[in-house]
Design goal:
This protein has 392 residues and is of the alpha+beta class. The protein has helices spanning 6-16, 28-34, 43-53, 59-68, 90-116, 123-141, 146-152, 175-184, 220-235, 240-247, 251-258, 307-310, 314-317, 356-373, 385-391, and strands at residues 2-3, 38-39, 72-76, 82-86, 159-160, 172-173, 188-193, 202-206, 263-267, 272-276, 290-293, 327-330, 333-340, 346-350. The protein has 15 helices and 14 strands. A hairpin with a 4-residue loop joins β9 and β10.
Length: 392
């Protein structure tokens, strides 16, 4: 069995994730493809993940790819998490993940509506009608906010209390539920935000704005196998447990997908990992590199087992729910964290001594990332212990 130690995995990470010198990308789509998808729960993550890997790229280039060229699309996918994906990968994500998610969301919301008594009769049929009417309005308008849609589709203002009798009870209308479900079904998509690139207040648009014929249907097994191939190319070698965690599939679903993919087993220092069978060549170690990756960046969130690049630093850099904050990297390892203060200053702290060369390279990256922000001051969606200390 071929062995791939932590040093080789770090070399792969630096090269394939476009973080080492000489491999950074000059096109937004190129960078996104390198990572399969970009995490987008926090809107700023998309832009800062591109910034960390880009050469000659500005925030406007990301906005152009998302909202003008529309070569990228924002959607809920693995683990009910928001991602930005290349448009040609959307059919794979839709069939392998989003369709099942849509079914689950629709079932959950339908149960809430039925239990509340807000709708009499067949709730599923009623939801079908509301979704169809909402989609039709979006097709006519081209784009709209949730508030605008609820004015034109009165049933979106239906009030439902999900926790009747509880102290935290608070009736809410179903606008967001319907829009999320339509998004999971691949019928509508989040469009341009209201405000800066760090805003999470989006307009909505019909999927036809991105894909005129809608999302092509793919067989589930075929789509899952393709997603596994792309993940292994970007994140392999890795144990099966990491793939299971990243996809959010059951172990049975993961094994079924893997049966359709030509893989090889490798020794990861006492643990068995998988890699694509045609991807066993060694990766020459790049020159030492520094990077400041944002919260929820796809690199630290690409694996569940993180000791080989994280070391003992999890308590300072992750929140209680397992979300990683901004991280400082040196040559394939996390060695510290960083933050943006309200005045725009980028501050960072190392959690281990990496030497003067590392400190100079990190300082240069901090200056570059600070310039990328410009006047934008995103409010972090997730706060970690070190990020709080740095901004106190």
């Amino acid at each position: 069995m071929r062995s791939m130690d932590a040093a080789e995995r770090r070399a792969r990470l630096g090269v394939r994730h476009r973080l080492a010198a000489g491999v950074r990308g000059d096109a937004v789509e190129q960078i996104v493809r390198s990572m399969v998808v970009l995490h987008a729960t926090d809107p700023a993550t998309v832009y800062l993940s591109v910034a960390a890997r880009g050469v000659g790229i500005e925030p406007g280039h990301v906005e152009q790819a998302l909202y003008d060229d529309r070569t990228l699309l924002r959607m809920l996918a693995m683990r009910r998490t928001m991602f930005v994906a290349p448009v040609d990968l959307v059919p794979v994500l839709q069939a392998s993940v989003a369709d099942a998610l849509a079914h689950k969301q629709r079932k959950t919301y339908g149960r809430y509506i039925e239990q509340s008594g807000a709708v009499t009769g067949n709730v599923s049929a009623w939801l079908n009608e509301v979704e169809a009417e909402t989609h039709a309005v979006l097709l006519a308008r081209g784009s709209a906010t949730g508030a605008q849609l609820s004015k034109e589709v009165p049933r979106l203002r239906t009030q439902v209390d999900t926790a009747p009798g509880k102290p935290y009870s608070k009736p809410t209308n179903i606008t967001t539920w319907v829009l999320v479900t339509l998004g999971c079904e691949g019928r509508i998509v989040r469009g341009r935000p209201n405000g800066s690139w760090a805003s999470s207040q989006y307009t909505w648009a019909p999927i036809e704005s991105w894909l005129p014929e809608g999302i092509p249907a793919l067989p589930v097994d075929e789509a899952r196998a393709e997603l596994v191939r792309k993940w292994l190319r970007a994140f392999g070698p890795a144990p099966v447990s990491d793939l299971k965690w990243w996809t959010g599939w059951t172990l049975g679903e993961v094994r079924k997908a893997l049966a359709l993919v030509d893989t090889a087993e490798v020794d990861l220092g006492g643990e068995t990992g998988l890699v694509l069978a045609d991807d066993l060549e060694s990766t020459p170690a790049p020159e030492p590199w520094a990077a400041l990756l944002p919260a929820l960046d796809p690199t630290p969130m690409g694996w569940q087992s993180r000791d080989w690049y994280l070391g003992p630093h999890q308590p300072a850099l992750f929140d209680r729910n397992g979300n990683v904050g901004p991280t400082v990297w040196w040559d394939g390892r996390i060695i510290g964290g960083w933050a943006q203060r309200p005045d725009g200053e980028i501050v960072w702290r190392l959690l281990e001594d990496a030497g003067s060369d590392a400190e100079r390279a990190i300082a240069a990256e901090a200056e570059r990332i600070g310039a990328w922000y410009g006047d934008v001051r995103p409010i972090p969606r997730f706060r970690t212990p070190l990020e709080r200390e740095l901004t106190a």
